[in-house]
Design a protein that fits this description.
Strand 2 and strand 3 form a beta hairpin. The protein has an eight-stranded mixed β-sheet with strand order 3-2-1-4-13-14-15-16. It has two domains: 153 residues, no CATH class; 285 residues, Metal-dependent hydrolases (TIM Barrel, Alpha-Beta Barrel), CATH 3.20.20.140. It has 486 residues and is α/β, with parallel strands linked by helices. The termini are far apart. Bound molecules: zinc ion.
């Protein structure tokens, strides 16, 4: 099926470009075939279908005027209250496709009414099934919270429970414009099943520890998940230094070497974690992981709040992505990761919510704001970590951190994973700077549509994920009650 999204502003993020321009996005199946202005370079759609149903206000092919030059946003044509408008059915505009000589015809054409289209956010670190522990045990230090509250409850989980808790998380991702999650959790098969059934995109991260899984099981899952489904992939990973013996870490490193695979783990989240590691090994977790050979094929490190200059040098030299989780770090009082210093040193950065038990919400607008706000506070410098830098962390760099280069931008050949942002809301007006509006003022209420692999999974407040959202809420509540009653 070919879809045309027109009368929009496009933030392609090609080569990290965050400036939005007027243009269109054309999609064939799960891939983008055009993203940008029309009427130049030989690409032109068949306009007959567009004009047939769009009504006044359509500005297809209006050229490439920069956002800051825009004097007005046309009346909204996209989504008039009916879910079908955004879902590419019902209210969608069928292209007639019969204009002689037109190089492109479309099955559906959607007038975006001046909305902003950008690549979907990439949640590069989360534990989706932990939705069941949302607001269950808050206001506790991390190690107490983990050992006294989280681990005992997780011991009662079943695969079926994990499936529904993960499905709940995916609903929340969609409302926030998130189009892929990097998930570290046990019951990997059930998390994958939840993602496939929801038509979502998931990268599974190995979740091995002394108490969870085994090297053989993790390696088997790594191979199986990478062959399961086009929207599912997997990386080698382990939980953290403080939950894994050196022998286990060496076994994980051997798996990474066998497959030339990057490795991901929690790293230096709390001061106590780093001090305890130094007590055990005489070096920081980062230096230890490097010494064991875990970083020989790149990878990523979650949190990295308490890292030193040598750790950051290792990240840069080994191509390790630092995946920051400012909401979780703030709520658990872990501290602020020195992201600006890492940037100065050339370390690549990405963003994640962490799990919904520590955050507690899976909201990338809040996460982006905290990422920049915390740097400004830490450095007492209002110029620290500007909006374009945060947007790159959330979109393009996040895709690279998750080994999803096919999802990093809006460009021909890339996957059609995108979010449509409604600019016709008070918090997005007036438009002096669209990128700054998005990062400093944007919120989930501005998410008009979330598309994964060319399929609209969320539009105008309605989900299209295979089952009604109400059923997912009921199942998640039911399983939460059962586990609490055990
Ligand atoms: Zn985590």
């Amino acid at each position: 099926m070919k879809t045309r999204l027109y009368n929009a502003y496009i933030c392609t993020m090609v080569d990290g470009d965050t400036q939005a321009k007027q243009g269109e996005v054309w999609i064939d199946g799960d891939r983008i075939i055009h993203a940008g202005p029309v009427g130049t370079g030989g690409s032109s759609p068949d306009h007959a279908g567009a004009d047939a149903g769009a009504g006044a206000g359509a500005r297809a092919g209006a050229g490439a005027g920069a956002v800051d030059d825009a004097s007005s946003i046309d009346a909204r044509q996209f989504g008039t209250g009916s879910p079908g408008d955004a879902m590419g059915a019902g209210g969608a505009i069928p292209g007639t496709g019969d204009a002689a000589g037109a190089p492109h015809t479309f099955d559906y054409e959607l007038d975006c009414g001046g909305c902003l289209i950008l690549p979907g956010f990439k949640n590069a670190h989360t534990h989706s099934p932990m939705t069941f522990l949302r607001s269950f045990a808050d206001d506790m230090p991390l190690l107490d919270w983990l050992q006294k509250q989280v681990f005992p409850m997780e011991a009662k989980l079943s695969g079926e429970a994990v499936y529904w808790f993960a499905r709940l998380a995916i609903l929340e991702y969609l409302t926030s414009g998130i189009t892929a999650n990097f998930d570290m959790y046990a019951f990997g098969d059930d998390v994958v099943r939840a993602s496939v059934d929801s038509s979502f995109r998931t990268v599974m991260c190995g979740a091995i520890s002394d108490n969870e899984s085994s090297p053989a099981k993790m390696e088997a899952e790594y191979l199986r998940f990478n062959a399961t489904h086009p929207r599912i992939s997997a990386t080698v990973g382990f939980h953290a230094e403080y939950t894994c013996s050196q022998k286990l870490m060496e076994e994980v490193a051997a798996i990474a070497h066998r497959h030339k695979a990057p490795v991901y783990a929690h790293n230096s989240e709390t001061r106590a974690e780093v001090e305890q590691c130094k007590g055990r090994y005489g070096i920081t977790p980062t230096a230890l992981f490097d010494r064991v050979g875990l970083y020989d094929f790149g990878g990523g490190a979650y949190h990295c709040v308490h890292v030193d200059e040598n750790d950051m040098d290792i990240f840069r030299e080994k191509g390790i992505y630092v995946i920051s989780n400012p909401g979780s770090n703030m709520k658990l009082a872990s501290g602020i990761a020195p992201l600006c210093r890492m940037q100065e040193k050339g370390v690549s950065l990405a963003l994640g919510t962490d799990g919904p038990a520590s955050n507690n919400c899976l909201d990338f607008f809040r996460e982006m704001f905290l990422a920049t706000g915390c740097q400004k506070l830490l450095l007492e410098d209002a110029s620290a970590m500007d909006a374009p830098a945060v947007l790159r962390m959330a979109c393009s760099s996040g895709a690279h951190a998750m080994c999803l280069p096919q999802c990093d931008s809006l460009a021909p050949g890339k996957q059609a994973d995108l979010v449509v942002i409604d600019l016709l809301q008070p918090n997005m007006q007036p438009i002096n700077n669209m990128t700054n509006n998005l990062v400093y003022s944007g919120s989930k209420q501005n998410v008009k549509m979330t598309m994964v692999a060319g399929k609209v999974l969320y539009g105008d407040g309605q989900f299209d994920v295979g089952v009604p959202a109400a059923e997912i809420y009921a199942k998640a509540q039911e399983w939460t009650e059962r586990i609490k009653g055990m």
